[in-house]
Structure formats: C-alpha cells, structure tokens
Amino acid sequence: MSERDQSAVEPAGATWPAQPLAFQARHTLFTALIEAGRQHGRLGAGQIEDMRPGHYSYRDLIKISLALGRLTCKLTQAGEHVGVFMPNMVSTLGLVFGLSAFRRIPCLLNYTAGPELIQSACETARIRTVLTSRAFLAKANLTEVAGALKGVELVYLEDLRPRFNLIDKLWLMGFALWWPKRATPKGDPEAPAVVLFTSGTEGRPKGVVLAHRAILANIAQVRQAFPFSPEDRFLNALPIFHSFGLTAGALLPLMAGCRLLLYTSPLHYKTIVELIRRDRSTVLLGTSTFLNQYARCAEPGDLQSLRYVIAGAEKLAEPVRQCWREKFGIDIYEGYGATEMAPVLSVNVPGANRPGSVGRLLPGVEARVLPVPGIARGGELHVRGPNIMSGYYRPEAPAVLEPPRSAAGEGWHDTGDVVELDAEGYVTIVGRLKRFAKVAGEMVCLEMTEAIARAASAEARHAALNVPDPARGEAIILFTTDSDLTREQLAAAARGLGYPELAVPRQIEVVDDLPVLGSGKIDYLRLRHAKLPH
Predict the structure, then answer these.
(1) Domain harbouring 498, CATH code
(2) Dist. CA 429–CA 420, nearest whole Å
(3) I need a surface site. Which of 59, 162, 164, 326 has the fewest CB within 10 A?
(4) Using one digit for the tens of pLDDT, what is the confidence trace for 217-237?
C-alpha cells in the first residue's frame, strides 16, 4: 500500500466549487427551515406533500412544527429522548423539527426492524415516550408490535389535537407563527438534532447521535456536489428513520427550495413509477435493489422527467446501471456514506461519473486508509469532517455518549469498509471488513461472491455468508432465488470477471426470497439466523 493510502487525504476542495460550509455553524434544523422559507417564499404552495390530500408551504410546515413542539412539551422534559414511530409524512417532519426546536431529541425508530430490535433501540436511548399514530399502526399492521414495547408510553397524534387549547391557539396564531425564533428556545448547533439507529445486522443497534451541525453540514456538502435548484422535484420513498432518507431525501430538498413528495414505502414499485410520471419528478434516490425494481416496472417514457438518479446504501449492481442507461437513457450517480457521517461521504456527479466507484469525497471530508493484514487491495477507511456524529449510544451503556474515535485518532470514525482511494480522489468500495471470509488462508470478500452471482444470473437475488469449515477455515454459502444456478456457471462468471476461484461458493442454497431491511439492504443477520444452524 502506498504512503498516500496510509496518510491523511486532504479534503477534495480542489475538485469542488470553493464555497463556505459556515451555514451549519450558526443554525439548528428549525432555524434553517425558517431561513429556507425566507429565501424561497414562506407562502409558496405545494412545497411539500405526502399521500394525504393537500399541499404544504414552508409556512404550513413551520406551523405544524410549532404546534407539535408545543404539544410535546406538555408530555416531555427538555433534553428528553422521544421516540418517533411514524412513516414518511409531513407530520413526521413536523415532529422532527418541532421536538428539536423545543430541545427534545427525536429518536427515529425503524418500524420495519421487528419488535426485539425496536425494544433494544428504546432501551439504548432511554426512550420513555413514543409518538405514533393509530391510523399508521393499523394500516402498517404494527399495532401489536407497538403495543408490545415495554417501559415506554405510546402517545397517539390523534389524541394530541384536543390538548391544543385556546391559549395554545392564540400563542400560535398571534405570536409564534410571526416570530418563530422568539417563540422557541435559543438552539445550539452542537446539540443533538436526532438519534438514528444502526441497522442491527451485526448485533443490537447502536444509537447514532447527530448534531444540527452535522446534518446541516452534510446538506451543504451535497449541495456543492449537485446543482439542485427550486425547479427540482424530489420523490422520496426512502424511510426517514434511515439517514439517507432523512438527510438527502427529506431535509436537503427543503433547505434547497426544491419541491418534495413523500411516499410511505419504497416497496410499492408500480405506484412509485406512476408518481414519478404524474409529478414529473426530477430527483430520485434509491438503493440498487429498489432502482432495479422501478426499472422493471417502468416503460421507457415513464421516467423521462428524471435529471438525477442517485444510488446509495448498498453497492450499485452493474446490470442495474446498464438497464437504466439502455432503457431510459439515464445515468445513475452512485454515492457512499455512513449513518455516523450524517450520512453522505462521497458521490459521483454529472461530468465526473466514474462507474464502479462511489465518486470523490465531499468537500471537508478527510480520510485515512489504513492497511488490513491479509487484504491486498485497499485498506480500512477512517473519516472525519464537519458532518461527523457527536457519538454513539451503545446498548451496554444506554444514553451515555461515546465520542467518535478510531485507530486514526480522536474525532475519527472507522467505517469498517475496505476501500481503494486513487490519486484523483475517487473511492472504490472493496467490501465490508466484517464481510470477508478466510478461505484456505486467503481473505475473500463476500461481496465479490455476490458480484459473481449477479454476473451469472442478473435477474435473481443473491446473498453470500461465511460458515466454519474444518478443512479450509471457512467456506462460502450462496443463497439465491435462481433455482437453476450451478457452480459451473459461477466459476465461468468468476473467470470472466477475473476473480479468484476461492470466491466461488462451495454450496448453493435456493430460497424463495431474501430478507431485507427497511433501507433495502439485505438483512444478513436475519438470513443467518433463519438458514444456518446455531
């Protein structure tokens, strides 16, 4: 590994427009929303909408945030961690803005994670109050899951409306809506804005504490990479309990003056295609898995309004990239991030889109690539920047903030990903360090095995796991939805890609489907527990 790879890499300032990142240093999420409304027109109709009838302006969203913030003050204490168990709706964003404006800390719970992990998240952040909706729980079949949570009080939004009394209404309409900054406590950009939770694929979820500064810095960084304008129309179906869906899918378009349409699930493929065509969306965010399904459901003319299709959260499969290019004439811009970095770290952009990479590091992001014994290509990526988290809440130390630290030093985050970083600053993901198998003494990336499977069977879904093997140390099992896939086909695909034979799985298991997380990633922990002996 070169000396450059092992040393700190300067922020990629020379490759991006030289613009200050000072906005986040003086704003909270709520004051940034107020500023966005001032810049782009508080009364502009249709700034944001969800699946309920009606459109909302900046003024409407500020009003909802103030009202919900005032109501939750009656139920919670300043500094309290408050669970938010809600889908992609305007009222959910109102809760995020409103809670943080009144110095409560919204903790966005992953309602797709299952009762055990949701309970663990509540305990890790010491959540005592969870805000939700009866209508949402009923429609999503989550009433029993929410009701089974222990040690928390469920508060339904439907029950809060009667508690907004005459004094509250006079406060809102006669004072707060006109002077929202004076109506709320002075905020601290370094205070926690939200707590998000890791996916739990490698154990119980950790709480990731993101300050206002981190989220707003990341929005400023992404806006330097992409020239979004008020003419753009975002469609966001990625759940906002996921950092990609929250920062890039919901908060960024609001701060940039773009139109935003929130949809409740990325799994309704045909509906999302219809919404893109109806709304003439120009920006779509998604995972490789979701983008593949949208492409399969769409006709060539359905997606012609899209200017930017941005992929993240999992590696973009090459067949998906090719399908979008050939069927729709659209280039996908692949990016990369981590919840701990609020989340975007790098992204390909128009005019500098290098397929196979995840683009260049965003301005202000520093990186160290440290060598890993047994892995020849690349090294483990450590990062820091203005978008870094305040720290973790770990299950073994609930609500105790553990500041970021890694082998690179204090204030650095270890991504756990093995990457290559070239002289031009492009990042290429080799694989996740915890997803390597030691086969016959060699470190083999399980994502390489999955790439081989995709090359041999592009339409099916595949996931690789490592298991102990007395003769070879570890062996690789491939789970696939292709009942006709053979080792001979995989070996031929590996040769075609130039991959080593050790990456060809020893065993193939056919499954009806693969479990996925709400973000679209494969749920390897659930797959392992369901399919492998313990």
Answers:
(1) 3.30.300.30
(2) 7
(3) 162
(4) 999 999 998 889 999 999 999
